[in-house]
Every structure is written in C-alpha cells, then in structure tokens.
Write a structure and sequence with these properties.
Blueprint: E1 5-8, H1 11-27, E2 30-33, E3 36-41, E4 44-47, H2 48-60, E5 68-72, H3 78-90, H4 96-106, H5 109-112, H6 116-120, E6 127-130, E7 139-142, H7 151-154, E8 159-164, H8 167-179, H9 191-202, H10 211-224, E9 229-233, H11 234-239, H12 241-251, H13 258-262, H14 265-272, H15 275-279, H16 282-286, H17 313-321, H18 326-329
Parallel strand pairs: 5-7, 5-8, 8-9
Antiparallel strand pairs: 1-6, 2-3, 3-4
The protein binds adenosine-3'-5'-diphosphate.
Residues 72, 74-80, 169, 173, 176, 273-275, 278, 298-302, 306 line the site of adenosine-3'-5'-diphosphate.
Amino acid sequence: MSSSKTRKSTDVEQLELEAKFKELELTLPKQLWFGFSFHNYQGFWCPTFILKNVIAFQTHFEAQDTDIILASLPKTGTTWLKSLLYTILNRKSTSLHTISQQVFQTKNPHELVTSFEFNIYKNFNETQPDLSDLPSPRLFSTHIPFLSLPDSIKSSKSRIVYVCRNPLDTFVSTWHFNLSFDTNKDMKSSTEMMEEYVDKFCTGLLRFGPYDSHLLEYWKEYLQNPDRILFLEYEGLKKEPKAHLRKLADFLSCPFSEEEENENVVEEIIKICSFQSLKEKDVNKNGKAVPIVENKHFFRKGEVGDWNNDLTASMAKKLDQLLQGKLKEAGFSFTYYQPPEFGGYY
Ligand code: A3P
C-alpha cells in the first residue's frame, strides 16, 4: 500500500506550486513552536516544511470512492490505528502470523499507511505521485483538518476513520514527543515551560491545531454523513477493543466472519497491534520511518490518564476547558473520558 509509481512533475506544475508557496510563506501568520516554524494556513497551524506538500496534495490528489483515509491530530493514536487498519484490511491475503512476524518486524506502521502531507507529496517538486494503480481499497493518512482536504475527497464517497483523544493526554504525549527530538535535546523542561505550552495548546498552537476546530470539523461531517466517517476515541479503543475492532471491520466492509470469531481472530489482531507487541519490534526500537523522528518515539507509554503524572491541577483544568466551548455547543462530548473533577476515566 505504501509504494506508488511516480512521474516527473511538469515545469508548469512546479512553477505554480513554487509561486503559491512563496506568496503564502511571506503573507501567512507565522509562529515558532518547540523550535519548529509554523504557518497559519487556512486556519490551521501547518509545519512550514510541509506547507508545499499540503498545497500539492490539495491541488493534485484524485480520490476514489473506495479510498480509506485515516485522519487524526498527531499524538491521538495514529500509529495504533495504522497498524489496526492495515491488519484488518490485509488479514485475508496475508496471514496474521506473517503480518506480525514479517511485516511488522520490518516496517513501522507509518511506512505501511503513508501520509499525504509527510510522505506522498513530499517530493512534488521533482515527481508527481501516481497512485492510480495502488491496490483497492487504497489506504492513506492525514493530519489535515476536514475543511482543508482536497475537494476530490470531500465530494467522493471515500471513507474516513477519525481518531481523537482527550486533550490532557494529547498534550502530554505531544510534550514528550517534541522534547524527544535531537534538535530539542538542549531544551530544559520545567513547570514554567510546560505552563507556557499548555497555554499555547489552549489557544490552538499545536501541529494542525487548533485542537477543538480539528475535532469539530470531523465531528460535524460525521453527524451529516455517519456512513462516511467512523469517529473513534483512543480511550474507547483501550477500554473496549473487541467492540471497536468489529466496528472498524464493519465500516471497512470486511466484517469478521463467524469462523474468524470462533478462531479468536479479533483477539489476535488486538494482540498483534498492541502497544507492547509493536514497541518490541526491532524496527520500532532502531528504525526511522519519517524524517527527524525515530520510530521509538511513536511508542512512549500508550496509556489513558498518563496526564496525572505530568500536569498540575490548573493545567489539567485549562486543557479540559477546551471541551467546554464550541465542542460542547456542537453537542460533542467524549464517551470514555471523564473530566478530572469527576474522578478519572473508568
Ligand atoms: P503516549 O505518548 O501517551 O504514550 P500518534 O501515533 O498519533 O503519534 O500517537 C502516539 C501515542 O499513541 C503515544 O501516546 C503512543 O505511545 C501511543 N501508541 C502508539 N502505539 C500504540 C498502540 N499500539 N496502542 C496504544 N497506544 C499506542
């Protein structure tokens, strides 16, 4: 699923992309965040180094009705969902044993389900990816908010799996992830600095944020088109994995058969894609699937409620408030997350 043919981009395509990028780079609001440059593009914070890829994706991607797209904010369970989607979709053509012992042994989930903006459109200046003959259903991922997806996706019948995670754990995961970069090894973490980044998170400054707008755009689309979007919570997957896997397989039009149920295939997939099992693979201890991030940093703790170990009460409250504004107004609330005052998650 990850490989694709390419063709050389035409001079006109390259010039148009370059011109648009130059103009945006000069005119869009800009911020530094954990040492990285971001531009506020179409209302979301886009890492500057992928802005060109995003424009190329928006301009050139042609969706097919059978496409399946995983959408998420970073640090909300993307890696986990990639492994689950890949396994559920390929379980008939490749045995679970092979997926576990060969595929996952040599490939990180980000290599198996590639991202439009980080992988597929990253060399657009030289090559235009040709995705037309990838096996169907094609499986992709993106962190881009719904309203900024290419029109060809919005107007197609392609299906979207969206995963979200409570803002407290999302923040803490983001915090540790950013401090793990080599480029940030001299950053001295402190409560003051964490407070500053909590405030930034709450005002929307995070990769592909604001947090609430990202979630809301996909939520609204889900309300209008429940057959097109499957809306998942990280916490729900943790608490009721079997029910969630069945839901996922149904949504992907490859439900578990009675025979598979009897053979405990659902349980087996949960095990193969579990945090512990993936974390222990050599490729996830030593490899590097995407630029600047070592695979091991995609597997930190994989728990619900780890925010308790890092956040002060006031930070937790501020982050929880993100659920009170426009998300609440739109009728969104987490099913599996309880605000800190009401005593934890379960
Ligand atoms: P923590 O930092 O809280 O441990 P993303 O993949 O969107 O970047 O999200 C990363 C988060 O998902 C990290 O959370 C990571 O540990 C967790 N994660 C990765 N693989 C997982 C798995 N198989 N099951 C559960 N959580 C997983």
